[in-house]
Amino acid sequence: MNPNATKLVLAGAITTILAACGGGGPGGAGGGVTTAPQSAKVAVMTSDASTEDWAMIGVKVLSIALVPQGGGQNVSVYTAPTPVPVTNLVNLDNLSELLGNASITTNVPLIFTGAIITVSGNPGDVLLTAAADPSTGFGGTPGASVPANQIQIQGATGSASNLTVPVSITFDSPLQVTPGSTTPLDVEFDLSHPAFIVAHNPPALQGTTIWAVNFDGPVHHHPVHDLTRLVLRHAYGQVSSISSDSSSITIAREIPTEPPVSPETAIATGTSLTILADATNGTLLYDIDTQTRTTITSFANLASLVGAQVRIAARYQPDGTLVATRIYESSATNAFNNLWISPEGHVLHVNDTTSIVTVENERGVGVPLTVNANTQFYFRQPQSALADATPIGSGPQFLADHDLVRGFKIHANVVDPLASPLVAESIDIETAKYDGTISAPDTSGFTYTRTFRTKSDDYSYTLDYIASSTANGKDPLTGVAIDGFKWWYFAYPTQLDLSIGDWVAATNQAVNLGGTVGAVPTNGVSYTVWNDPANANAWSTNASIILPSTLPLGASATPLSTSNTFTMTVPNGSVAATVDVATTAGSATQVYQVDRSNGIVTVSQVDVTTAAGLQSLASALQSAGTPVRVYGVPQTDGSVRAYVLTYFTGTTLPSS
Question: What's the pLDDT score for residue 74?
C-alpha cells in the first residue's frame, strides 16, 4: 500500500454476478476426481491513499477482469451499472469501497496473475476539483473545478464518445480463488504518484494550463490476506427486506450523484447487499429523524426499517459475511440527503479553542462541525468487533489533546442535518495518520514535523512504536501473521521490514543542496492505532512508510553515467544533486517522459530495465538543461535514490 495512493472507490457498492464453467477452469488443476462445483466469491473493491491537493478526483470504472495463470479467457468480476457512477478516489484514503461480490462457479481453485481495469476516457469522464487549502505551489485554484477541456486523459482508445482506458496490472503474488470461500481483490489508485496528474503551465500563446491524467503506473494491486482488517467505506441504500429470523437486512444499493447536487440524490445500482446485526456486541442504530440512538442485536420489532434510507458502517467476518457496526436511518423527506449531508472527508482544520473541526467535502468546501461534550469519537478497527463499536474519546478534550489533526479521514454523524451550525453527534476516524519530515528517530519513537499552507494547522508530534507482541496483520506476499512495528519504502509496499533499527538508520539521512534550498530531509507517513499496550489511550504507529522527498523542479547538469547516475541543479541551490537511477526489474526507478507539443500533453512510461528504455533516458539527459523532477530518498553517500523520475520534452513548461 502506498501512503499517498488513492483508492478508486465509489460511494456505494455495486454487485455483479459471474458464472464460470466448473472443472479445470482457468488457472485450475484439471483431472482427478470430479467434485460438485461450488461458489467461490471474489469481494471486488477499490482503495486509495490521500492527496492534499484535491477534493475530488472522479473516475468512472467500467469493468474489472482477472487474468488467469497460464492463459485462457479473462474472468469478469465487475461490470458497472447504467448510468456509470463516478467514484471519488479522494474519499478512499486507505479505505476499501466494496464494488461487489462476484460469484465464480468452480470445483477447483483458480489462480490469477493480474487484472485489467477499464476506465472511461471520454472528455468529462474524469472530474478534478481542487482542495480548499492545497499545498504551497499547487498549480490549481483552491476549491475550483477544472474544466473538461483542460483535462487530457492519457492512453484512451476507441471512437469518440466511447473512449476507454484499459489499465493492466500484474499481481505481486498470484491471487487464488478457492471454492466455498471469499477472496478479496483490492485495486489501489496512487493519487500522489508524480505521473498520475501532471500540471503544465502554458508557454507563451499556447493556451491554458493542461492537466494530464495518466493511469499507467499509478494503479496497483493491494494484496489482502485478512478480510476482517479491511476498513470499508460506509454503504448507502434503501432497506428492502428483513430476514425471516430477523438476523439481517437486505438493502438495495444506492450511490450519491457525482458531482454532488443539492439536495443530494440517490442513484439506484440495481444490486443488493445483505448485512447482519452484531448479535454479540450490538449494532448502534441512529434514527436521524428522531435524533435517538439504540443498540440492537437483531432486527426484530424493526419492521419500520423496510423502505427507510440507510447509511451503514460494516465489517467483514472471517466467513465473508458483513456485519453492521453502526446504522444511520431516515424516512423523512429528502432522507438520502439527510444521511449524506453528515460530512465525510479529510480533516481540514482543528480549532481546539472554539471546538470546531472543519471537514473538507468533495466540492472543495470546508464544512465546520461543532464538537460538544456529547460528541463521541470512534476509531474503525473492524478486526476487533468490540473495539470497533466502543468510543475512544469524547468532547472537546479530545481535540485539546491533539488526538485529531489535519489529514485524518473521518465520516461524521450530525445531531440535526438541518441545524446551523452542524453539531457532531459522533465522528468515525477511518484513517489516523501523521506525516511530514522525520527527526530524532530512535528505538523508542520519532517525531514528525508537518507544515501546511495554513500555518495554524502545523504540528510536531512524537509517535511511539506499537509493542513487539501486538498482532499487526499479515505479510502481503506470504500471508504469514506478523507482530510489532512494520515499515517499507513507498515504492515497495510488499517488501516489509520489521526492524526498528533499520527504520532508524534509513530515516536518519538528508541531502544538502546548499543555498536557500538547504537540506532535503527524509519524509514519511505513519498509520496509527489507539490504546496499544505500549501507549495507553494514545496513538502509536503500527505501520510507517518512507516517502520520497520531492526535489525542486530542476535541470540535468551531467549525462547519465555508466553506473546510471547523473547530476541535476535546482533553483536557489548551490550544490548539484547526484541522482541514482535503479534499473533492476522489480525495484527499478519509474521513469516518465512528459511531452507537450501543439497544446497536447503526452505522458509515456520509460522502462529502464530494458536497453532501449535506458538509452531513451540517456539520450534525454545527454545535453545539460533538460527539465527534470525527481522523487527520491536521501542515501548515506549523499546521493538521492530516485523512485520516480520525470523528464520533460517538447514545448512544455511544467508546473513548479
Answer: 92
Same domain, 332 and 348: no
C-alpha cell at 631: 522523487
- Between the alpha carbon of residue 622 and those of residues 200, 552, 557, 605, the distances in Å are 23, 21, 9, 19
Residue 192 lies in a domain: yes
Same domain, 53 and 196: yes
16 assigned to some structural domain = no
Domain end, chosen from 225, 245, 266, is at 225
Instruction: Give the type of residue at 654.
Output: P
- Residue that has been written with the C-alpha cell 504518484 in this structure: 193
SS3 state at 277: coil
Mean of pLDDT values over 645-655: 72
Give SS3 for 232. Answer: strand
Identify the CA nearest to 137 among candidates 540, 416, 551, 447: 551
Within a domain: residue 33? no
For 328-359, the pLDDT digits (tens) are: 999 998 899 989 888 888 999 999 899 999 99
- 289-328 burial by CB neighbour count: b if 16+ within 10 A, else e? eeeeeeebebbeebeebeebbbbbbbbbeeeeebbbbbbb
Q: Quick one: 63 and 166 in the same domain?
A: yes
Query: Is 453 within the bounds of a domain?
Result: yes
Tell whether the torsion through CA atoms of 467, 470, 476 and 477 is positive or negative. Answer: positive
Core vs surface per residue 550-580: b (16+ CB within 10 A) or e: bbbbbebbbebeeebebbbbbeebebbbbbb
- Considering the entire predicted model, what is its pTM? 0.78
Assess whether 323 and 362 both reside in one domain. Answer: no
Higher per-residue pLDDT: 199 or 115: 115
Coil, helix or strand at residue 186: strand
Written in H, E and C, the secondary structure of 103-116 is: EEEECCCEEEEEEE
Is residue 361 domain-shared with residue 387, that is, in the same domain? Answer: yes
Distance between CA 389 and CA 413 in Å, rounded? 15
CB count in 10 Å sphere of residue 517: 18
Give the CATH number for residue 391: 2.40.50.320
Q: How many domains does the chain have?
A: 5
Pick the more confident residue, 106 or 391: 391
Report which residue type is found at 570: V
Report the distance separating Cα 584 and Cα 608, nearest Å. 8
Among 302, 321, 340, which residue terminates a domain?
A: 340
pLDDT (tens digit per residue) in 238-258: 999 999 999 999 999 998 887
Alpha-carbon distances of 88 from 51, 97, 362, 635, rounded to whole Å: 12, 11, 8, 36
CB 24 within 8 A of CB 18: no
Question: E-strand spans in 51-135?
Answer: 54-59, 61-68, 75-79, 87-88, 97-106, 110-120, 127-130
- Domain containing 375 equals 344-431
pLDDT of the residue at 38 = 56
Residue 345 and residue 343: Cα distance in Å, rounded?
A: 7
Who's near 602: CB < 8 A, 6+ residues apart? 154, 212, 594, 595, 596
**Does residue 393 sit in the same domain as residue 320?**
no
Do 527 and 556 lie in one domain? The reply is no
The pLDDT mean for the chain works out to: 85
